[in-house]
Amino acid sequence: MLRASMCFVLLALVGCRLAEREGMNPLPENAAPLSYDEMVNRARGQAATAIDAYYIDAWMDLEQAAQRLEQSARLLPKTTHIPEAFKTKVEPEADLLRQDAVKLLEAARAKDAKAVNEAMQRVNQRIRQLRPQAKAAEEKK
């Protein structure tokens, strides 16, 4: 009984760890595009991972999160099901997000905490503005 309980706990921990890492693997460049919602959520998760890495000075993890975020920003205009309110704005906004991800990567490589913090603020603001529900709320006002 004890052995079965230990196996269950181990499997649960491994499952939690895998869920935590979702979005941290690079997407194949020639893969079928994700939906707009999936890509924005992926970018949001990558930004959260970057914040976690920054908090504990895990510079390599921060660099990796910035690289994944740059890829997500680059692929964002190629997503499917882009909301009407974003169709004309998604490309320029995604390019600004990509530029901020590159700045985040450079700051992480330099271990420049101030520049990382500034880049993270811009990244989080841009991702927040890309939320489909944010645009819908603005239109209701």
Provide a descriptive summary of the structure in words.
- By secondary structure, the protein is mostly helical.
- Helix content is 74%, strand content 0%.
- The chain contains six helices and no strands.
- The chain has helices at 2-21, 36-55, 59-75, 90-110, 113-130, 132-140.
- The longest helix has 21 residues, at 90-110.
- The N and C termini lie far apart (59 Å).
- The model is unreliable at 6-19 (pLDDT under 50).
List keywords for this structure.
globular, mainly alpha
Distance between the termini: 59 Å
Q: Count every helix, treating DSSP H or I runs of 4 or more residues as helices.
A: 6
Please report the total strand number as a whole number: 0
Low-confidence stretches: 6-19
The ordered string of helix (H) and strand (E) elements is HHHHHH
**Per DSSP, what share of the residues sits in E-state strands of 2 or more residues?**
under 5%
Largest sheet at a glance? none
Helical residue percent?
over 70%
**What is the alpha-carbon Rg in Å?**
17 Å
Gross morphology is globular
The computed structural class is: mainly alpha
Overall residue-averaged pLDDT value? 84
